[in-house]
Each structure stands twice: as C-alpha cells, then as structure tokens.
Design a protein that fits this description.
Length: 416
C-alpha cells in the first residue's frame, strides 16, 4: 500500500489545509471524523456529519469515524443508540479503542472495516497477535504504541506480517504525548481558585490550562478538560517525521499528525505553513531544524531510539527533596498559612528541641528555623522539649516553606 497520512480534522479550513498537504507529498489521506460524544478530542455535532463527510470525499480523502472514548455501561448504552442514528454507510472505516465497542461493531456491523487503537497497554508481540487473531477479517489496521523502541518495533512488525501480510499499521509521527487521563472533571472543579489563573475555554468548549508539579520544578504540562474527562500531556511533542523512511521500510504505511489536539483554531499553524520548503523524501538537517523552529513545543523522539524509561526514573527524581541522611530529621507534611507547620519526625530522637534547623524546599531553597520548648507542640497542643521518631509536631510557620520540604539539624543554640 502507498504511504498514507492521517489527521483529526475539526473544520473546513483545516480540511482544505490537510488536503493540500497530501497533494504536496503525493500521498493518500484519511480524515478522522470526531463527533464530540464519541471522540475524546472530536468537536463535531451530529447534525454536521453528513455535510462534512461529503466535503471530505469531494477532496478525494477518506472519512474515518472515530469512537475512542472510555465506555462505562451507561454511556455505552447511550452511544450505541447514537451510533445507530449516524450515516455510517458514508464512512470508509470506523476507528475504535474500547474492547466492548470493538465487539459491538464486529458482531453487529460485520460489514464495517475496523481500525483498532492499541496505543496503551499493548507492548508485546503476543498481545498484538491475539488482537489480530480475534479481529479476523473485519480488523484492517492496528494503531501501535509510540513507546516501542525501533529495534523491537521492527521485530514485532516482522512477526505480525507473517500472520497477516495484509494487516495495516499506523504510528503517530507528529503530535502531543498523552501522559494521564481520568474521566473526572479536575479543572472545572477548581474553577475560580488560584490554581486556574491561566485557564481558558476555547471555541469548542474545551477547558485548557497548564499544570505544574508540586514535587519537582517541572511545569507547563498542557491540560484539557472536556465532556469525557481530563487529559494531561507531556511538555514536549512527539516527532518521528525524520524517521518516516525508516518506518516505511519496517512495514508501516500510515502516519498520523495530531496537530489539532493541543492547538485551538487561533494558534494552529497550517500544515502548508509548517511543511513549507520541507521535502519529506530528502530531509536535510536544515529542514529538520526548520520544523523544530516552527513547532509550538519542543520536539522529541520519545522511546523510538531506545526505551530508557528505567534510566529516566533517576532524572525524574527531584534531587532537591531527596533525603540526605546526615543530620536528617524529618519532613514537613502540612502547612497552615501564617499559623503553623506540621513536622513528621522520620529519623532518630532529637533529645533537645533547642536548635536551629535547616529546611530545604522542593524548589531547592534553604530556610533556617529556630525551635525551642516554647514554640514546639505535639498534636495535643502540649509544649515539648524532645522530638520522638514517628511522631508529629506543630512548629512556627515560616514563609516559603511548603509540603515535602526536608528538615535537617543545623546547629545547637549556644546557651549563655
């Protein structure tokens, strides 16, 4: 099969732009049609579908219906009824993720060609082979995880092709990396609070915000909340554009571009602009740098070169709050602004509380705090002169000290 580009498209302007991209590189194109009730990031209304699909076909592109939302029992029942009301014969294929939806389409609409999303939890050949076997003749394409390293991916594709040489495979080559999803509405629950000072609601009704870690200096995680829940993404986007020839040699024919998920209409760079003066067949270092410069976020290849997730754990660890045993006392576990701090003793007994303690915050800032038997209390409100391991103590509040700050002995207070 010839090379094929795929993209989730939300409006006619983006549709025309994507059509120009496929024409530029002389490839076929699939348009992912996302109805807001069935698609995690779709925004189309059911009433718009027929007209939109017609426009897709007029541009010689293929419309693919997306049904990739998490399906609880109640929601599944409602969405099955919605699905039955759609002009499903107008779509080339349907794209599913939930096993229940897969079974429903396979058994009730066996004439439909299915594309199965296996981007999460499917990292071994045995599992993929089982899905292929179960899918039978209705399953036409498998969307693979971007967490599989290049050499392992090559090996897996070889095995999969042996079982079914006609099976098609797709991989994300440009777009955001989903880190976390919950069906809960986490952003709207914080509406009006300081946490959401940077939030906005886009033209599709998506709440967009930026997240910051409380345990490390990392910040800028894109957040989206819509009717399906809350999504958090990596601060960097995934890009295997320069690896497309290598992926083709492995047997992957379908390459997905997810530019519309994190970029609303007002800050979306058109494909024609993004790929201007870029020859995907003969990419040079200058062209690759051009794409990096045009990208809204930094670009990475993720796990493609090698899966170093085990090595990266040490990098993810916040060294600034990592325990140092020398003179270690314990940890701040609660802060009541302008009132008090709660100190959990995690080391040996402190025989005399009359000391200066050094406190290191998660940001790496160092603070000094003087304790004595007249400002340190146990949870019963009694003043204490010693600190016992495993116990909790209330100590004076000091600005800048936050939860997870580490506490160390600094020096004794010299008695006069």
């Amino acid at each position: 099969m010839s090379k094929n580009f795929i993209s989730l498209i939300r409006n006619e302007s983006s549709l025309n732009d994507f059509s120009q991209l496929t024409t530029k590189y002389n490839v076929s194109g699939d348009v992912l049609v996302g109805i807001k009730e069935l698609s995690r990031f779709g925004t189309l209304d059911v009433r718009e579908i027929s007209a939109f699909v017609k426009k897709i076909k007029n541009l010689k592109l293929r419309p693919i219906l997306v049904w990739d939302v998490l399906q609880t029992e109640d929601r599944f029942f409602k969405n099955k009824e919605l699905f039955k009301s759609l002009p499903i014969h107008e779509f080339t294929r349907i794209r599913v993720q939930d096993p229940g939806v897969f079974e429903f389409i396979k058994s009730e609409y066996s004439w439909m060609e299915i594309e199965l999303i296996l981007e999460t939890g499917n990292h071994n050949t045995a599992g993929l082979l089982k899905w292929m076997e179960y899918g039978g003749q209705e399953l036409k394409k498998m969307i693979l995880s971007l967490e599989i390293p290049k050499e392992k991916l090559k090996e897996m594709l070889s095995e999969l092709k042996k079982l079914n040489s006609q099976m098609e495979f797709e991989l994300l080559v440009f777009g955001p990396i989903l880190l976390f999803y919950t069906p809960r509405n986490l952003l709207s629950a914080l509406d009006g609070k300081d946490h959401l000072s940077s939030t906005r609601v886009d033209e599709a009704g998506f709440i967009r915000a930026s997240g910051t870690s409380e345990e490390s200096p990392h910040s800028g995680f894109p957040l989206i909340e819509n009717l399906h829940g809350t999504f958090m993404f990596n601060t960097k986007d995934h890009s295997l554009i320069s690896e497309i020839p290598t992926l083709e040699d492995m047997g992957i024919e379908h390459f997905r571009f997810d530019t519309e998920i994190l970029n609303s209409n007002e800050n979306l760079t058109p494909y024609t602009t993004f790929f201007e003066n870029v020859d995907l067949s003969h990419l040079t270092e200058d062209m690759i740098q051009l794409l990096k410069d045009r990208s809204v976020r930094p670009l990475i290849k993720g796990f493609f070169q090698i899966n170093k997730s085990d090595v990266l754990f040490t990098k993810l660890k916040n060294r600034k709050i990592e325990r140092k045993d020398q003179s270690y006392v314990g940890e701040i576990i609660d802060v009541e602004r302008d009132e008090k701090l709660c100190l959990w003793i995690k080391a040996a007994s402190i025989k005399s509380v009359d000391k200066v303690f050094k406190i290191i915050t998660p940001e790496g800032k160092e603070k000094l705090l003087t304790l004595n038997s007249s400002n340190t209390k146990n949870l019963s409100g009694e003043f204490v002169s010693t600190l016992i391991p495993g116990e909790y103590y209330l100590i004076p509040y000091q600005s800048g000290i936050t939860v997870k700050s580490k506490v160390y002995e600094h020096e004794f207070i010299q008695s006069k």
